[in-house]
């Protein structure tokens, strides 16, 4: 069994993907070819925003957004403590100080109450100027923008939606990548919509920001003349081949993959509700839909997670742990103000979370096999 079955996906889409790749190779237009602009328009239309700027990866996408906003030294950027390193790395690389905020134990996303508490603390201390919030749509579920956006407006903070794992997620009929003043995503192969290498995209309704970020992506060029550089920038472009691969994959994602991965998640949830053990299963509130980048459970306190993983591996079932260490405990932030954080929920989650295989091609039989293996292992390692 594959954790995220890209091999099976390719077999379903092989004809279309191979054709798109062949067309790019025949054209020899490997950089900024026609499929790039076609994909950008498709993505903007799907998400429901005016502008999509593709780039080399999801990390660059966040960095470019912060660059366009002028985020830098002495600025504070508020980031969930339970997320992938890029979310905090990018503001730190820009010279700002990431302030790590605890998350909700039910959704793994930024806790709005603790966000406002952290903002007030920074304002009271007076060392940094609060500038932005990076809200992460973790594991495919949009963050609580109904509560986060008013907080950003109250304190005049920029809102960046990090939807690296959230593409396809929905809140109140709006899609992920449309909730921030700038939103970003990643096309890393294992993401809900992934290419066959690295790739990313930036979304905004702001015309001026869109033009600036498009310029930053290509060495700060001005207009169509790539040798007229009007600002400092970077080299961050989505290859034509990757764009060509993403076009049929986006079509499949829209037509059936998002529905299928939700069906697989529903099967897991149903089976886990009947397992008879005190597990915490993913919560999707009314008005939300997840794109299930991960299906993450929380094991009971005291269960040896590595023993469970070893048992399941012996049964041919891969598992993952996202994440093993809070952001504020990462070595890169040691000795900095970013390391000072009150994030007890995140610390507990890092001890207990376990991610099960999830993808659109997972069958009901597969799901039953996963849960039976989990149940058997927990029966060995849990006292009732």
What spatial order of strands do you see in the largest sheet?
A: 1-9-8-5-4-2-3
Distance between the first and last residues' Cα: 30 Å
Q: Sheet bearing the most strands, described?
A: 7 strands, mixed
Kindly provide the radius of gyration, computed on alpha-carbon positions and rounded to a whole number of angstroms: 21 Å
| Low-confidence runs | none
Order of helices and strands, N to C? HHEHEHEHEHEEEEEHEEHEEHHEH
* Global shape: globular
- Helix segment tally: 11
Overall strand count: 14
> How helix-rich are the residues, as a percent range?
40-55%
- Report mean pLDDT, rounded to a whole number: 96
Give me the secondary-structure category.
alpha/beta
Q: Which percent band covers the strand fraction?
A: 15-25%
């Amino acid at each position: 069994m594959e954790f995220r079955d890209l091999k099976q996906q390719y077999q379903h889409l092989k004809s279309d993907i191979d054709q798109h790749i062949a067309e790019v190779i025949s054209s020899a237009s490997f950089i900024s070819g026609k499929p790039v602009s076609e994909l950008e328009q498709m993505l903007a239309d799907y998400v429901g925003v005016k502008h999509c700027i593709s780039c080399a990866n999801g990390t660059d996408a966040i960095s470019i957004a912060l660059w366009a906003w002028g985020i830098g030294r002495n600025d504070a950027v508020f980031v969930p403590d339970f997320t992938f390193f890029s979310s905090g790395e990018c503001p730190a690389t820009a010279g700002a100080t990431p302030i790590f905020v605890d998350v909700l134990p039910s959704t793994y996303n930024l806790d709005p109450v603790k966000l406002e508490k952290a903002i007030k603390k920074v304002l009271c201390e007076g060392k940094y100027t609060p500038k932005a919030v990076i809200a992460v749509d973790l594991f495919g579920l949009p963050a609580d923008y109904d509560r986060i956006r008013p907080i950003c407006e109250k304190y005049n903070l920029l809102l960046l939606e990090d939807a690296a794992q959230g593409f396809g997620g929905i809140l109140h009929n709006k899609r992920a990548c449309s909730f921030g003043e700038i939103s970003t995503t990643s096309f890393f192969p294992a993401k809900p919509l992934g290419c066959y290498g690295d790739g990313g995209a930036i979304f905004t309704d702001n015309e001026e920001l869109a033009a600036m970020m498009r310029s930053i992506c290509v060495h700060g060029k001005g207009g169509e003349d790539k040798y007229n550089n009007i600002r400092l920038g970077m080299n961050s472009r989505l290859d034509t081949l990757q764009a060509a691969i993403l076009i049929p994959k986006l079509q499949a994602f829209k037509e059936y993959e998002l529905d299928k991965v939700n069906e697989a998640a529903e099967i897991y949830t149903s089976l886990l509700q009947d397992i008879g053990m005190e597990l915490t299963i993913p919560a999707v509130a009314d008005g939300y839909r997840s794109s299930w980048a991960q299906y993450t459970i929380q094991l009971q306190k005291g269960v040896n997670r590595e023993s469970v993983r070893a048992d399941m591996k012996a049964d041919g079932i891969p598992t993952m742990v996202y994440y093993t260490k809070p952001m504020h405990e990462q070595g890169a932030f040691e000795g900095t103000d970013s390391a000072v954080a009150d994030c007890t929920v995140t610390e507990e989650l890092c001890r207990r979370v376990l991610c099960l295989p999830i993808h659109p091609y997972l069958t009901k039989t597969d799901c039953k096999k996963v849960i039976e293996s989990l149940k058997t292992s927990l029966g060995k390692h849990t006292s009732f």
